[in-house]
Design goal:
By secondary structure, this protein is α+β, with helices and mostly antiparallel strands. The chain has a single domain, classed as Rossmann fold (3-Layer(aba) Sandwich). The chain is built from 3 helices and 4 strands. Strand 1, helix 3 and strand 2 form a beta-alpha-beta unit. The longest helix is centred in the middle third of the chain and has 14 residues. The chain starts with a helix and ends in a 5-residue tail after the last strand.
Length: about 110
């Protein structure tokens, strides 16, 4: 997956590592310049503690107005309660990314999208 993303998006910073420790992979300059974090971690099967760590890690490095994008094979509203984090949700779309299940994409931000 990482190799595919690097080829498809050569200008993007693609990180392969523990999402709970996201900021450890970024330089100080990068930490203030992140507009989006995209996650394909299967939140439906992740523990509540891991989901919490991942969401907090993502928003700790995002610039104001930045987006946390979750791509999942399950409808994301079942994955975590975004309202508990004071986040707004926007449906992006779905795709038959796998043979058996569609992938749903939602964007979460701290600011409401009009």
């Amino acid at each position: 997956m990482v190799g595919l993303l690097k080829r498809k998006f050569p200008k993007a910073t693609i990180i392969h590592g523990d999402a709970c420790k996201l900021e450890t992979f970024l330089s100080e300059e990068q930490k203030s310049n992140i507009s989006s974090v995209v996650s394909t971690i299967p939140f439906r099967i992740a523990s509540a503690s891991d989901k919490d760590k991942i969401i907090r890690a993502a928003f700790s490095v995002l610039e104001d107005g930045g987006n946390f994008v979750q791509v999942s094979n399950y409808y994301p509203s079942r994955n975590f309660s975004y309202k508990e984090y004071g986040l707004y949700s926007q449906y992006i779309g779905w795709d038959w990314g796998s043979w058996w299940f569609p992938s749903f994409s939602f964007s979460y931000s701290k600011k409401k999208v009009d």
